[in-house]
Amino acid sequence: xxxxxxxxxxxxxxxFLGTAGARFVVSKQLRASxxxxxxxxxxxxxxxxxxxxxxxxxxxxxxxxxVKLDGLILTHRHIDHSNDINILVEAMTNGGREQxxxxxxxxxxxxxxxxxxxxxxxxxxxxxxxxxxxxxxxNQSFSLEVSMPHAHPVETYGLKFKLPYGTLSLVSDTAFxxxxxxxxxxxxxxxxxxxxxxxxxxxxxQNKIYHLNYRQAKELxxxxxxSLAVLTHFxxxxxxxxxxxxxxxTQEELGIKVIxxxxxxxLDLYQLFSTAFK
Length: 278
Description:
There is one protein chain. This protein is an alpha/beta fold. It has a single domain, classed as 4-Layer Sandwich (Metallo-beta-lactamase, Chain A), CATH 3.60.15.10. It is 24% helix and 23% strand. The chain has a seven-stranded mixed sheet with strand order 6-5-4-3-2-1-14. Strand 10, helix 5 and strand 11 (189-193) form a beta-alpha-beta unit. The longest helix has 12 residues, at 243-254. It starts with 12 loop residues before the first strand and ends with a helix.
């Protein structure tokens, strides 16, 4: 395995700056809502910087310096995924003094009557590109493929990072639909946003929950069979059912490695792929 991984990928990792999902866990900060920091081939990307993301970066040990970011990604516009986007662009670009970095985001985060990315921020960035179904972004360290639109009230996408040693996927917020299995089936590491333990029964067809529940997440894991599945982005009832126990139970039932993320957790990808996955 060592000979297959370029030197620049030996220190790849994911840092979970927060694992909160949905409004009540976020507003009460029962879990942090900082998003995910990916370091891949020497490139640093922050995905879905929710409320407190900047603070979580600066309070991490070791500190995650936003100036070292190469780009930011929003999977969608909801506040638990996008609240800190403007201040992080400011931080990444040294207050706009240095035009740098990229932003990948759906069109409704950037345009229209209620964009979450403020207009003045655009000129600070070296590049802004739209997330669109099937679009592939290439650079020297990885390629990033955008999923089909997820089933969510606003334009939402999952992400698939193609790396020299495997495929790392993020299933962002979505209701379940069968095509999720087909799209993510080649994932070696599968990160799944699991907001709810069980679906709430809608009243008169109202208040449908457009999130994966625990049973559906387990179905994805069973069908896709990744080398590692990571549960994250927990709502209130998921926390009440203790995600680490659910992950352990799922692993025992399916015979697939499953962990529940916690705030500040770091996954060293080189170590994972060179030991557990060989």
